[in-house]
Amino acid sequence: MTEPTTQTDVDAELEGLEVDAPLVGIVMGSKSDMPVMEKAAKELTDRGIRNEIRVMSAHRDPDMVAEYAKNARMRGLRVIIAGAGLAAALPGVVAAHTDLPVIGVPLTSSMTVAGGLDALLSIVQMPPGVPVATVGVDNPKNAAALAARILSL
Ligand code: RP5
């Protein structure tokens, strides 16, 4: 690729970048969450919405989560879907580091208590001023549908 030399060239370059940039970031706390969370990616892709999917744990990779969330808006993301089980801090920590809308997906896992109520309460009970929109347990498809509605605003 040659260096752009005029404003028109620069605009064309930026437009090209935007075309390829994902609009929705999907993150989850563990590889073990992937079989459920990839349904959000499928739903978005079926709707023609560009997305990316990443594994990062609020507890095991806190620096990675902070960096991802802080850079999200600059990278062109407009909504972040975050799924986690157990003490599901990931959606809240992402919301603490970005002003983009964050949709939390409570997940069941091998050590789940009360059918995912542990993760549900961890995600939905955010302090005032740091909201996470929360969908039902193991329901990433609804998170994708909500992301689509937010993008349509
Ligand atoms: C959470 O702990 C993850 O989101 C996952 O749902 C659960 C179990 O993680 P693994 O032990 O399978 O990595 O942080």
From TrEMBL:
Molecular-function GO terms, alphabetical: 5-(carboxyamino)imidazole ribonucleotide mutase activity; phosphoribosylaminoimidazole carboxylase activity
Domain PurE, residue spans: 22-153
EC category name: isomerase
Keyword Lyase: yes
Keyword flag Protein biosynthesis: no
Catalytic reaction(s) noted: 5-carboxyamino-1-(5-phospho-D-ribosyl)imidazole + H(+) = 5-amino-1-(5-phospho-D-ribosyl)imidazole-4-carboxylate
UniProt xrefs under SUPFAM superfamilies: N5-CAIR mutase (phosphoribosylaminoimidazole carboxylase, PurE) (SSF52255)
EC code(s) of this entry: 5.4.99.18
Keywords associated with the record: Isomerase, Lyase, Purine biosynthesis
Pfam families linked to this entry: AIRC (PF00731)
InterPro entries: PurE_ClassI, PurE_dom, PurE_prokaryotes
Binding-site list for substrate: S30, D33, R60
Family: Belongs to the AIR carboxylase family. Class I subfamily.
Role noted for this protein: Catalyzes the conversion of N5-carboxyaminoimidazole ribonucleotide (N5-CAIR) to 4-carboxy-5-aminoimidazole ribonucleotide (CAIR).
Protein name per Swiss-Prot or TrEMBL: N5-carboxyaminoimidazole ribonucleotide mutase
Source organism of the structure: Solirubrobacter deserti
Phylogenetic classification of the source organism: Bacteria, Bacillati, Actinomycetota, Thermoleophilia, Solirubrobacterales
Gene name, Swiss-Prot/TrEMBL: purE
